[in-house]
Amino acid sequence: MVADDSAAGIVDGSQGLDLSQYDEEQVRLMGEMCILLDENDKAIGAASKKQCHLMENINKGTLHRAFSVFLFNSKNELLLQQRATEKITFPEYYTNTCCSHPLATADELEEDGQIGVKRAAQRKLEHELGIKPEQVPLEKFRYLTRIHYVAPSDGMWGEHEIDYILFVKADVDLDINENEVKSTRYVTMDRLKQLIAEADQTGTKLTPWFKLIDTNFLYKWWASLDDLDALVDHDTIHRLL
Questions:
Q1: Which residue among the candidates 99, 108, 128, 180 is catalytic per the annotation?
Q2: d(Cα 155, Cα 136) in Å, to the nearest integer?
Q3: Which end of the chain has fewer CB atoms within 10 angstroms, the N or the C?
Q4: For the Nudix hydrolase domain, which residue ranges apply (predicted)?
């Protein structure tokens, strides 16, 4: 499913962009096909990760589907990652456990029960962190809500996403892909609040979607981690623009 470029707001000239200054593997991943959306989260086509993340296209309205996984261990500690230096967008920023995009494939386009997004989350947890699918079975993922946000990374790249928020509680084994992840740590709620409060002083960079989720939702969800039913909202797309 490929969208008409003019309808998607995609700039044709981006196809010839020179990416030679970036990491070879990260450039390869820029060819993956993301799911293009209208503002109500209806799939309207597909475009490459590169096309979706260029600010020249974002400024014309290009919007894609994403997910953010928050993985907690049996102590209710949250696994954070620091994005690798090689990443093209937001390199070395700290963020939640795993953040990426469902692809425009039959398995990950499937919307019933948000199964496509959950499959994508399971795939990327293994790709980035080496977490085996059997440690995070699809039925363990809890879809809470969606946020719609836009954020520049630098003058060229940025994000414009409808982001599905997924919680999962599991004790997992990590085998870090260093091309994706520079470091990881588990944090308690109090420790995360301290890290964020001190971020400017310590020079810690936080991804914009993580800051938005932290500010608006995270702690009430975290406090109810084992009883989230009352906090689930599948109807609202929270516009944090």
A1: 99
A2: 37
A3: C
A4: 62-212
Catalytic residue among 108, 159, 161, 180: 161
In the chain, the domains with their CATH numbers are 15-239 (3.90.79.10)
> 133 with 122: CB under 8 angstroms?
yes
Q: Does the annotation mark 126 as catalytic? A: no
Tokens coding 106: 């039959």
Whole-angstrom distance, CA of residue 40 vs CA of residue 86? 33
List the structure tokens of 160. Answer: 């414009």
In this predicted model, what pLDDT tens digit does every residue of 64-82 receive, in sequence order? 999 999 999 999 999 999 9
* Cα maximum dimension of the chain: 50
Is residue 128 within 8 A of residue 29, CB to CB? The reply is: no
> Virtual CA dihedral for 212, 216, 219, 222, nearest 10 degrees?
-80
Is 161 considered catalytic here? yes
> Facing residues of 70 across strands?
167
Contacts of 31 (CB under 8 A, 6+ apart): 48, 49, 50
